[in-house]
Amino acid sequence: MATSEAVGVETVDLATTSLRELNRRLHECATMDDAPRRWRVLNPSGAHSIAVGLDADIEVDVEGHAGYYCAGMNKRATVRVHGTAGQGLAENIMSGTVIVDGNASQMAAATGRGGLVVIKGDASSRCGISMKGVEIAVRGSVGHMSGFMAQTGVLVVCGDAGDALGDSLYETHIYVAGKVKSLGADCTEKDVKPHHLEELKGILARAEFDDVDPASFRRYGSARRLYNFNIDHAGEY
Amino acid sequence: MQTGHRKSTWAWLYVEPMCGIVGLFSKSSAVSERLGAHLGDMLAQMNDRGPDSAGVAVYRNPAPQGSSKLSLYAAQRPCDWEAVRATLARTFGGEPSFEVRHTNAVFVVPAAAPDAEAVVAEHHPEVSVIASGEVIEVYKEVGRPLDFVEAFRLGDIQGTHALGHTRMATESLVTTQHSHPFSTGLDLCLVHNGSLSNHNGLRRELRRQGIEFRTDNDTEVGAGYLTWRLREGASLQEALEGCLEDLDGFYTFLVGTHDGFAVLRDPIAAKPAVIAETDDWVAMASEFRAIAVLPGADDAAIWEPEPATIYAWEREKV
User: pLDDT-derived band of residue A234, with 50, 70 and 90 as boundaries?
Assistant: First the structure.
């Protein structure tokens, strides 16, 4: 997780400051050398698009519930939501870290290309839909159609998974410790090999899920019957 | 639910937040006493989701034996509610009473609801019946939900359960008649987030079955469908299961009943819904922020309802 050289904590109260003003100030951190490195957002009250498009090594603590698309397109920043998050959390995250203390609604980390998304409660349907490299760690369960068309990256679910897990999956690695209600088209259970266990350990450590046993997970991946998989390039996946 | 092909796109999931739904079912006297205030707080959180109109259904104050409650709204204003009362008194005798809230009024009439409705329809075209039954009261009006909460004095309403809707119109006009909740029968109503795509064909079919429609609104067709199924003898459970077969489109439905409410999402479940429950209440909303304003929300059990699954809460009948 990102470290900070705290110059002090800058507090923005969304009860008295507009969302646009908050995001403008957070965006300025990308170009200002002396910008505050730590931010607290008060009274988020479920507002949509909080802390989207951040491109600086800053830490943002959202003190309450976030609405849709919180921390979308994040790059480099660490965003913590001390509450629940609405749909589209950290969508298309490029790098950095997004942590939610509570539950996240549908499409968490959708299309994410890198970075780490940690959900300490449950994620809803379509978690990691079309993910392209992001690491997602969910302490609770995920809803139906999670990992739909997921391409690369890793989805770790410490609880259960809903219907149609990994439907039309490409090469994302999916690990589930609990029950899987059903697998989607072309998704199949696969062996957990030593390098998968190492991968899992690393993500659980980065997510600070210290009480979760890496040996308790099953791995799911693509059966590679649905897309034009080229066996000669298998090493690249 | 398997797609089984590669051409699937999911961009349709990214829709603007439109329409907000809230529901609150009381399990304690403390919550019942402040039901309207809590509902108002929830509705206010959904203001941005539906700035075009708002509406609520509140279940409370059962009409005496042999009487029924009619919820009316005034199409022409100012409305001479006393004239409506006089007509009802002349027709049915006894002492019909009414309470006005902004542009709506609830009448208690010493008659069966269908009879009272027929009299109002025949003699008072300036008002419209929007709900009827033993306990239901419906209030709805165009304009911002934040203003609605004040104008209809939700803060002083007590009751057992209630639901509400904030509308961002997509399918049809912004009028009070196009606003939710829609009545689906005695003490029954429907609020809806989403859009139905087969509503025109279904409306024609339902009209052949004798169901009347006042608007071109898609949700009214959903309500009419439930009315028809219930009229034909289906249980609420069966009628809602029928929705999964016969309705095409996106929907999260919240159905208010005499004794509680039920939640249903379509099989794709793209429209949002979250449910929370404590020892004192059950709440349903489009977004958690509408639930977060309730006392004890931090300790509630919270989940998102599964697709194509009916969730229902009912108080035990005394």
Answer: low
